[in-house]
Amino acid sequence: MKKVYMERRRMVLSSVAVAIIFIYLARLFALQIASDDYRKSADSNAFLKKIEFPSRGIITDRHGKLLVYNQPAYDIMVVMNEEKGRIDTLELCQTLGITKEFFIKRMNDIKDPRKNPGYSRFIQQLFINQLSDKEFSAFQEKLYRFPGFYIRRRSIRQYKQNIAAHILGDVAEASEHDIQQDDYYQPGDYIGKMGVEREYEKPLRGQKGVQILLRDAHGRIKGRYKNGKYDQPPLPGRDIQLGIDANLQALGERLMEGKLGAIVAIEPKTGQILAMVSSPTFDPRTMVGKLRGKHQKEMSLDPAKPLLNRAIMGQYPPGSTFKTSQAVTFYTEGILNDSTLYPCARGFSFKGLHVGCHPHGAPISLVPAISTSCNAYFCWGLYYMLSNRRKYKTLDKAMDTWRDYMVSMGFGYKLGVDIPGEKRGMIPNAHFYDNAFGRWGPLSVISISIGQGEVNLTPLQIANLGATIANRGHFITPHIVRHVQGQKLAPEYTTWHHTKGSARAYDEVIAGMMASVRGGTCSHAVHPGYTLAGKTGTAQNRGKDHSVFMGFAPVENPKIAIAVYVENGGFGADFGVPIGALMIEQYVNGKLTPGDQARANQMQSRHISYAFKRSMSHSDSLRLDSLRRIAQIRDSLREVQEKQRLEEAERLKEIKAKKDAQEKEKKSQPQNDPALQPEEEPQVRSERRPRQPDRGDGEKHRDKD
Question: 246-578+590-608 architecture in CATH?
Fold first, then answer.
């Protein structure tokens, strides 16, 4: 018995010993093989891997004029494993001009993995970025006193001129989301945030380099490891040339001063964007340096929305410029021809519906209808197209055919311009009206024929319409970038997109647009040096109408197609035509005549008075937030009350149904059944619901909040 006991005891002790050995082996494996903490520690004692940042590619205009370049800057980096307890904190703060509280907070933020993903105490971390030359010099002299701190040289963007802020974009510190999306970036790295800088980030940024430095036992740098055998030099970013004409862009921003709206100019043959103006704009140089966040916040609170690129994000009714697309559609579909005449008695009048028009001769044919911008002519054209049951079996088929023409011209979807933020606009189809109206007919949607109603386009799409007409039926996707160093443009920026319109239809439209310049609504745009085709638009609005112009020149060999959109500018001839004419002259002739230069100065000084007079203050923002919360509370209360009302009605309905079923069952019982009286059902009493606060109580409650 004792022998068996000893045998069991030996087995238990052996098992414990084996388990302990296994645990030690597993721990050694985790420390020496699975984990690289000790390797990093050893490497950090022997080596310093210094990241070398490449110079970012420069950006020029179509003539090689410099727009964006690089300027040296300095960041302070820290290695936590070397810094801990080895520096005079007070002296460091005095040297950098920071407070001790800032130092403590910054060091804690660096160690916080939520704020600094991928943190390692063996790797350099960003402490302060973008030191001025004066701050850098003061810190450089005392750097030897602060072990664990290093200076990293890099470059920041600078802008040659105060133009094209929405096109160029800006560069700022990479966010946590950017770092998670691309492992190229580390905390403190810079990335393009808007415009070309964002869209062409990869070719512009280049490739980082690494320099491996050897240290001695005291942490002092002794030189390059193996004479730089394993160093990787940085690869500079690729230079980019834009299709933008800097002089044309500058003129457009001058002319739009004091106005809300946009200008887009396109080279029809290539699709290159010559100018893209969004007003109000801002100085791109304010988005550089430590004050970038402050300036961005101020502009985000400005009710004029200077950060909004209205050229690609503004969705507006195109007004009468849209009639050119209608003419192409109706002519190609055979709804009308050269000799088709439609009446106009101060507008379109049919079955009690009236769409107004200005006085002119009638009946009228296609070319003078475009020249005089007759509303009635295009209303009749759409009415006869949607009512034609010989050609289109159903109303839905006719409507979808119309919509297919519009989509082929680049409406209703994003064109695909090479800067982020583009909106698609709105082109309705039959399904849209089925959902919106239920029952509808041609007269229900007649306003879309004159660019009103449910139709919305961006200024870019209106300019592309002008380029399509100039090309007699095709367009190339509009794009900002003309050339990337060492690369070819993406194929979508060289491919022709043909519309459903016929060449003959486009010839008729061009004849109408030329007649508009010779003696119609665009007569102020006429120029003796070249032929010009144009179309005005007066887009109806809740306030004052918007002023619109679309055109191209020269007609025989188009070099520029342009769209001008001025919010609340009134008639198209008030702002759209003179601005468009000056822009076309600047590009075709390379300069303005002295007389047109004076007119440009006069247009620059013509400001439009809008509802807001000043930028939104912080108190305004808080007040609006409070109003939004009150509205949300009011909506929430209404939803709760409606839900309770529906629940109460449903419960009463169930009670009534149950009672009716019982009555029916009693009546269906035979007369000779035993006279047994069933137990009386208990009366169901609806609980009295707590009274909801009336409107006055709710208002008092919300005011108190």
Answer: 3-Layer(aba) Sandwich (3.40)
Distance CA 584, CA 565 (A): 15
Question: Helix (H, G, I), strand (E, B), or coil: what is residue 91?
Answer: helix
Q: Are 342 and 378 in contact (CB under 8 A)?
A: no
Alpha-helical segments (H) within 302-429 = 310-313, 323-332, 366-372, 375-386, 395-408
667: three-class secondary structure by DSSP: helix
- Residue 475's SS3 state is strand
Q: At what angle do helices 576-589 and 594-605 cross, to 10 degrees?
A: 140
Boundaries of every domain in the chain:
49-58+69-163+206-242, 246-578+590-608
**Beta-sheet pairing, 240-242 with 59-60:** parallel
Q: How confident is the model at residue 666 (pLDDT cuts 50, 70, 90)?
A: low
Q: What are phi and psi of 579, to 5 degrees?
A: -65, -45
At residue 153, φ and ψ (nearest 5 deg) are -90, 135
Token pair listed for 593: 């005549």
| Nearest residue to 506 (alpha-carbon basis) of 446, 558, 584, 455 | 558
Range scoring the smallest mean pLDDT among 50-54, 114-118, 324-328, 528-532: 114-118
Distance set, CA 631 to CA 253, 303, 623, 634, 653 (Å): 39, 20, 12, 5, 33
- Is residue 206 within 8 A of residue 234, CB to CB? The reply is yes
Q: How is 174-235 classified by DSSP, letter by letter?
A: PPHHHHHH-TT--TT-EEE-SHHHHHTHHHHH-B-EEEEEEE-TTS-EEEEGGGGTT-BPPB
* More confident call, 577 vs 2: 577
CA distances from 649 to 32, 639, 644, 661 (A): 72, 15, 9, 18
Q: What is the phi/psi pair of residue 329, to 5°?
A: -65, -50
Looking at the DSSP bridge assignments, the partners of residue 476 are 496
pLDDT band at 542 (very low <50, low <70, confident <90, very high): confident
Options 2.60.40.790, 1.10.760.10, 3.90.1310.10, 3.40.430.10; CATH for 49-58+69-163+206-242 is 3.90.1310.10
Residue 92: CA count within 13 A, CB half-sphere? 23
With residue 552 as reference, give the H or E element that holds it. strand 546-553
Same fold flag, 49-58+69-163+206-242 and 246-578+590-608: no
- From the list 400, 379, 362, the residue with the least C-alpha distance to 327 is 379
